[in-house]
T-cell surface glycoprotein CD8 alpha chain (Phalacrocorax carbo), 182 residues
Amino acid sequence: SKLQAGQQLKLECETNKDDSGVFWVRLDKNGTLHFIVFISSLSRTTFEGNMKTSTRFEAKKESKFYWLVVKSFTSQDEGKYFCLMNINQILYFSPGQPAFLPVATKATPATPAPTTQHGITEKDPCTKTPDPESSKEEDMNLFCNIFIWVPLAGACILLLIALAVTVVLCQQTRRRRCRCKR
């Protein structure tokens, strides 16, 4: 169905790798990129102006999908929509999802049906997001590694110092004994 003014537009971004969240941006007709929202992997949203909510947009994360909803589509919302994410210092873009009103706009229906446009295909690099369990496991592994290796390294250093002190004392003791026997 064609996009109508006043209609709700729902966009999705699917990922399957560990990430820290997704940015939604819009490329307008003039080629300018507009930041819309950042959705964290815990489904926390930050809209333009560091706001938690928006009058024009809704955004959330469900399982491995990041959703962006344009509540009531107008001409100022036209453009190509992209989701992007940072994974291991590499920036991944989804394919652009075009959203434009028809050139000749007729009277819009009173209750337009919502439209869903699906984003990223399996071939797309942005199809890289997270199983929350694996990211928790990695966090736990990192914590465990720090918890185990840091004290272990400290213990090794103390043992080496103790060994060095023991060797020095033993050498001094031997010398004294030799002198005493004479």
In short: The CA atoms of residues 11 and 154 lie 52 Å apart. The two ends are 108 Å apart (CA to CA).
